[in-house]
């Protein structure tokens, strides 16, 4: 059996652009793509912390070190400049791989500059 697991996430990035008339996708600072392991053209899920919207698109590379998070095309209706978003990618593993797998979690500041990475998500307190 294959399991869908969180492969990587960029946590609480700030939307810098919302380009309705662009061809679609989400442009992400190339450095953040490289650190997270999210590949250009890979399917991503975006969860808008401010608006509560969720949508699926694909990643494209923005200039390295630019801090760009640009939600493009029709998805631009679901995010505004300044919104906080969580960008996630998933992968498939068999059960043996899943037992050893750890996701790459990338954390950024308000300017989308790397603060730290982690390979786990803290347990939620009661």
UniProtKB/TrEMBL annotation:
Annotated substrate binding sites: 57, 73-75
Pyruvic acid (Ser) PTM positions: 25
Keyword vocabulary terms for this entry: Autocatalytic cleavage, Cytoplasm, Decarboxylase, Lyase, Pantothenate biosynthesis, Pyruvate, Schiff base, Zymogen
The protein's required cofactors: pyruvate
Pfam families the record matches: Asp_decarbox
Cofactor binding: number and manner: Binds 1 pyruvoyl group covalently per subunit.
The EC number(s) this enzyme carries: 4.1.1.11
Superkingdom per UniProt: Bacteria
Compartments where located: Cytoplasm
InterPro entries in the record: Asp_de-COase-like_dom_sf, Asp_decarbox
Catalytic reaction annotation: L-aspartate + H(+) = beta-alanine + CO2
Pathway assignment: Cofactor biosynthesis; (R)-pantothenate biosynthesis; beta-alanine from L-aspartate: step 1/1
Entries under Gene3D superfamilies matching the protein: 2.40.40.20
Predominant localisation class: cytoplasm
Top enzyme category: lyase
UniProt PTM comment: Is synthesized initially as an inactive proenzyme, which is activated by self-cleavage at a specific serine bond to produce a beta-subunit with a hydroxyl group at its C-terminus and an alpha-subunit with a pyruvoyl group at its N-terminus.
Active-site residues, record numbering mapped to chain: 25 (schiff-base intermediate with substrate), 58 (proton donor)
Assembly mode: Heterooctamer of four alpha and four beta subunits.
Described purpose of this protein according to its UniProt entry: Catalyzes the pyruvoyl-dependent decarboxylation of aspartate to produce beta-alanine.
Family that this chain belongs to: Belongs to the PanD family.
The name this protein goes by in its record: Aspartate 1-decarboxylase
Species of origin: Cognatilysobacter xinjiangensis
Gene: panD
């Amino acid at each position: 059996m294959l399991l869908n697991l969180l492969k990587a996430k960029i946590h609480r990035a700030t939307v810098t652009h919302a380009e309705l008339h662009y061809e679609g996708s989400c442009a992400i600072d190339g450095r953040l793509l490289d650190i997270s392991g999210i590949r250009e053209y890979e399917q991503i899920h975006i969860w808008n912390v401010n608006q509560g919207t969720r949508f699926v698109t694909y990643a494209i590379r923005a200039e390295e070190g630019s801090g760009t998070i640009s939600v493009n095309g029709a998805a631009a209706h679901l995010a505004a400049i300044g919104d906080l978003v969580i960008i996630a990618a998933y992968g498939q593993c068999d059960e043996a791989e899943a037992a050893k797998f750890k996701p790459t979690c990338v954390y950024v500041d308000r300017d989308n500059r790397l603060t730290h990475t982690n390979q786990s998500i803290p347990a939620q307190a009661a």
